[in-house]
Design brief:
Layout lengths: L4 H10 L22 E3 L17 E10 L6 E7 L4 E8 L5 E4 L5 H4 L1 H7 L11 E10 L5 E13 L2 E14 L4 E4 L15 H7 L7 E5 L7 E6 L1 E3 L3 E9 L11 E11 L2 E6 L8 E5 L6 E4 H11 L3 E3 L4 E4 L9 E6 L3 E6 H4 E6 L5 E5 L1 E4 L4 H6 L1 E4 L1 H4 L2 E6 L4 E7 L5 E6 L19 E5 L3 E4 L12
Parallel strand pairs: 1-2, 2-30, 4-9, 5-8, 16-25, 17-24, 28-29
Antiparallel strand pairs: 1-3, 2-11, 3-4, 3-7, 5-9, 6-7, 7-8, 10-11, 10-26, 12-28, 13-27, 14-15, 14-16, 14-20, 17-25, 18-19, 19-23, 20-21, 22-23, 26-27
Length: 463
């Protein structure tokens, strides 16, 4: 996602961004669908972008591949009949799918880029239908896409969903479309419609509106998203489940309370944020569409001070650090809702952002600091935790139960052990991830279908 410092301040000032389940096992193996995705990012352009059947026990797998040159998480889809190939950015922070129209003038300016990501020609599809509703989405950095809501057949890796609603952009500031998979209450449409999580359930492809995210190591070539289930092979320890926070009276973002932050290096621990201090907690969105993080300046500077080095760059809006910290074993420990703790490796937070004139790599802490004019403004704002933080965790987004479950990710795991979720949510079952065992596939799936989205991509951010 994209985010400029000025737009970040404006958004934060406005304050808007935003039971014990049963898991069934059986020995039979249902169909698993792979949904390829590639990761791309450019740090100065993508710090954050924010906008205002069959039986029910299956999973669908989504594959993500690491594209070092651009660093957004991309997925390959086809739309229409016959299918037209497109590549779009996967985003848990928004809720609409939109793609470029073949008539979009942006693609006349950047034909090479649009040739890579693809455009959609509605005239060539026999199943295309338009609607009377305009599609307009504007992000906080002033990037936008305008067009109309339309419907057509969406397909990926053997799955087809007819009459899928999406935005067809006839004008935009970017050549890259976005596949938002958040709450339908976060759609920009006047009236909510069934987006991907909704349609996967209504078409009997999964039993519950829930998916798990495993971005994997910063240098890894693949990670995974799994719709309708969890993969015990991708995390260690038990999943800790916490309640999401509503925005006003509705749930529209994956919003949690960040109650404690500590920098841990060896036996030394430095407190950055403490729940023992009244009113210190801040609200954060767990957003895979954001490359880095956006946190209060006092918190970011506290982390840099604990590291012991770092120089703020006005050009990047980030703290420049020595690239040797990419091999550090230190962690930034985040605790949510006083209940779930995630240890984020410093080696995942220190990211390469550019080559200097001497050909050496420039590295930065992947967190954009934002100043708040007062304690009230700080507490009412909503901050973002993007890929730089999420890589260290195995994150389960449960839209039905309004819960998020968190465990420590196992990097480069070659084990797959899938458990299908039902309507009661996520258990605290322990992960069994290992990066040393031979490749194994152990599907343990109840009588439902599960949409398993396997092989997500971790972003390495180079210009």
């Amino acid at each position: 996602m994209k985010f400029s410092t000025v737009c970040t301040l404006a958004l934060l000032a406005s304050g808007s961004v935003l039971g014990s389940p049963i898991i069934e096992h059986r020995s039979t193996t249902p169909g698993v669908v792979h949904f390829p995705i590639e990761a791309r990012s450019k740090p100065k352009e993508r710090l954050a972008r924010r906008l205002r059947g069959r039986d029910s026990n299956s999973t669908v797998a989504m594959t993500l591949n690491n594209d070092i040159s651009d660093g957004a998480y991309l997925t390959n889809i086809t739309i229409g009949t016959p299918g037209q190939s497109l590549r779009v950015q996967l985003d848990t922070g928004s809720s609409d799918l939109w793609v470029q129209s073949s008539d979009n003038p942006t693609c006349q300016i950047s034909p090479d880029f649009c040739a890579t990501t693809g455009t959609f020609d509605e005239i060539s599809s026999s199943t295309f239908t338009s609607t009377s509703e305009d599609f307009t989405i504007t992000y906080a950095d002033a990037t936008y896409a305008d067009g109309v809501y339309v419907k057509d057949t969406l397909s990926f890796t053997g799955i087809s969903i007819e009459k899928f609603t999406f935005g067809l952009a006839t004008n935009s500031s970017s050549g890259l479309g976005v596949f938002g998979i958040g709450f339908d209450t976060n759609e920009v449409a006047t009236t909510t419609y069934q987006n991907l999580p909704d349609m996967l359930v209504s078409n009997g492809l999964i039993g519950v509106k829930a998916y798990s995210l495993w971005l994997n190591d910063i240098d890894a070539s693949t990670g995974s998203v799994l719709y309708g289930g969890i993969d015990l092979g991708k995390f260690t320890g038990s999943l800790a489940t916490v309640n999401m926070l509503p925005t006003g009276s509705i749930y529209s973002q994956f919003l949690l309370s960040l109650t404690d932050v500590a920098y841990v290096s060896g036996s030394s621990s430095t407190t950055i944020l403490s729940s023992s201090q009244a009113g210190s907690a801040i609200n954060v969105v767990l957003d895979s569409g954001t490359t880095y993080g956006i946190l209060p300046e006092s918190m970011v500077s506290g982390i840099v001070q604990a590291i012991g080095s770092g120089q703020y760059s006005q050009d990047y809006g980030l703290y420049i650090l020595d690239c040797s910290l990419q091999s550090s074993s230190a962690t930034v420990n985040l605790t949510f809702n006083n209940a779930a703790t995630l240890a984020v490796g410093l080696n995942q937070l220190v990211v390469p952002i550019e080559y200097n004139s001497q050909g050496s790599t420039v590295c930065a802490l992947g967190v954009q600091p934002i100043s708040s004019s007062s304690t009230d403004a700080r507490q009412s704002a909503t901050y973002l935790l993007g890929d730089a933080f999420l890589r260290s965790g195995y994150i389960v987004y449960d839209l039905d139960n309004k819960e998020i479950s968190i465990a420590q990710a196992v990097f480069n795991s070659d084990t797959t052990d899938i458990v299908v979720l039902n309507s009661t949510g996520v258990t605290g079952e322990s992960g069994r991830g290992s990066s040393k065992t031979s490749a194994a596939l152990a599907l343990r799936i109840p009588g439902y279908s599960v949409v398993v989205c396997v092989a997500l991509v971790a972003g390495v951010f180079l210009l």
